[in-house]
Amino acid sequence: MDDPSGVGVIDKAAQVLDALEAGPASLAQLVETTHLARPTVHRLAQALVHHRLLAKDVHGRFMLGPRLVELSSAAGEDRLVSAAGPLLLHLRDLTGESTQVFRRQGEHRVCVASAERPVGLRDTIPVGTQLSMRAGSAAQVLLAWEDHGRLVDGLEGARFTATVLAGVRRRGWAQSLGEREPGVASVSAPVRGPSGRVIAALSMSGPIERLSRHPGKMHAEAICRVAAQLTSALRN
């Protein structure tokens, strides 16, 4: 959090919430991310759980709670989804392929917005589809910028390696060839929230026969540009 309000307890609670923007975290991970004292983080997290602003997953890790979803609905439509709509259509028309936005939810990534190629062979991923965090370029993007502990956990059983994720961080985009599904290629880039953390992945997918064995070479520039536009829209 770059600009504290001056109300200490609120600023620290906001730091805890910000730290969970990218997914569930243990108490130790929250301490590492927020740089707050362990007793302070524990006390704040338990209070936020009491008010349903945080919850715990099956592994006992802290995660954003159901009250935030309720408040978001009360405030109006999701900014990420609403901002993504026209940009996904633009990217689809630019690349000629189906486009999607994925968010991480626990051990899965969920498609929250999509624009399908209207005709011909295409990769169809309806809104609401849950896919694995162990395969695909979007999964690579959603994991690549995690802290060390989450990254190590996420690599267990994954079809990509730590070396692949290092390349994703260096380039700023990811690609996959038949990783999630045989014959399907994809390219993804990170979407960042107001705090700068990666909160979603913007993706484009289609058949390898059309995208070639080097889909990133063909489309990474366009995808990174549109992902940056979506990031900018969320900060305004």
TrEMBL record:
InterPro entries tied to this protein: GAF-like_dom_sf (IPR029016), HTH_MetabolicPath_Reg (IPR050707), Tscrpt_reg_IclR_C (IPR014757), Tscrpt_reg_IclR_N (IPR005471), WH-like_DNA-bd_sf (IPR036388), WH_DNA-bd_sf (IPR036390)
GO molecular function: DNA binding; DNA-binding transcription factor activity
PROSITE patterns: HTH_ICLR, ICLR_ED
IclR-ED domain segment(s): 67-236
Transmembrane domains' residue ranges: none
Keyword Glycoprotein: no
Claim: Chloroplast is one of the keywords in the record: no
Single GO biological process annotation from the record: negative regulation of DNA-templated transcription
Residues of the HTH iclR-type domain: 7-66
Signal peptide: none
Keywords associated with the record: DNA-binding, Transcription, Transcription regulation
Stated name of the protein: IclR family transcriptional regulator
